[in-house]
Amino acid sequence: MRRLISLALITWLLGFVWFTVTMPQPVDAGRTDGIVVPTGSEGRIPRGIDMLGKGNAAKMLVTGVDVNVTPEEFAVEYDVPERLMDCCITLGFRALDTRGNARETADWMAENGFVSMRLVTADWHMRRAALELSSRLPEDIRVLRDAVHTEPSLSTLFLEYHKFVATWLSQTF
To answer: Phi and psi (nearest 5°) for 137?
Structure first.
């Protein structure tokens, strides 16, 4: 029994080290049909807007937007030109968490007939967000993972690692 507990503890520790040392990185190259940005930590939305402005996609979904935020407020907050806001940015108000972001994203991708997307989220959040998306999107959808570099605290990494493991376990078993 003691060996089994030791093995579980070593596996958990090695997994946590892997999770923290090999966080996903930003990706500048690559054009996709759409860009998806779950709301959350700093840098996500500006990164998505920058990629959209550079022509890396035709449209962008910001998923998990607070219901009290208007498109005008969003445009002012992130200095989005009116032409870009009108043609290309969709604010999604249905998601309350990462699983909801995945549902909202899958619906948006299907509504637009998109077959590729750039997922823009924090480096520490990328694995779980992509995992949730993989369970909602058809297998033929290409997802480009574009992580926003952050400097997360140890507690953020600890919590996110456990959420990732729980998500992985729930989808595996």
So the answer is: -90, 150
For residue 50, give its domain range: 24-172
Give, in degrees to the nearest 5, the angle at Cα 21 between 64 and 105.
20
- Give the contacts of 97 (CB within 8 A, at least 6 positions apart): 64
User: Has residue 112 been placed in a domain?
Assistant: yes
Domain count within the chain: 1
Domain CATH for 107: 3.40.50.620
One pLDDT digit (tens) per residue for the chain, 173 residues: 899 999 999 999 999 999 999 999 999 888 999 999 999 999 999 999 999 999 999 999 999 999 999 999 999 999 999 999 999 999 999 999 999 999 999 999 999 999 999 999 999 999 999 999 999 999 999 999 999 999 999 999 999 999 999 999 999 99
Continuous segment of H or E residues that includes residue 59? strand 59-63
